[in-house]
Design brief:
single chain; alpha+beta; 2 helices; 2 strands; globular
């Protein structure tokens, strides 16, 4: 069942290209890379769908469609993991 959910959460090639264009336009100064690859079929067992990853203080979901001036015709969610990065240092 989880493999089916992973497939339902994936994007078509056209949708992927729209997402990449949007990210490059909006976040160009904050991106170092955008990676994408197609799924191998059959989809491997045991993959966890994005919608089933539990959120806590470090891990959460970015719901891009809730950001002002969102332009894509479909919702896009992403995952962040603050434990993978050092703290942001504020300049005084």
């Amino acid at each position: 069942m989880s493999s089916r959910k992973v497939l339902f959460e994936s994007f078509t090639i056209e949708e992927r290209d729209m997402i990449i264009d949007c990210m490059k336009e909006r976040y160009v100064s904050r991106l170092s890379a955008i990676n994408s690859r197609p799924f191998d079929f059959p989809i491997p067992m045991g993959l966890i769908p994005l919608s089933e990853i539990p959120e806590d203080d470090d891990i959460g979901c970015i719901r891009f469609e809730e950001i002002p001036n969102y332009t894509l015709p479909f919702p896009v969610h992403g995952l962040y993991d603050l434990s993978q990065h050092g703290p942001v240092k504020e300049e005084i």
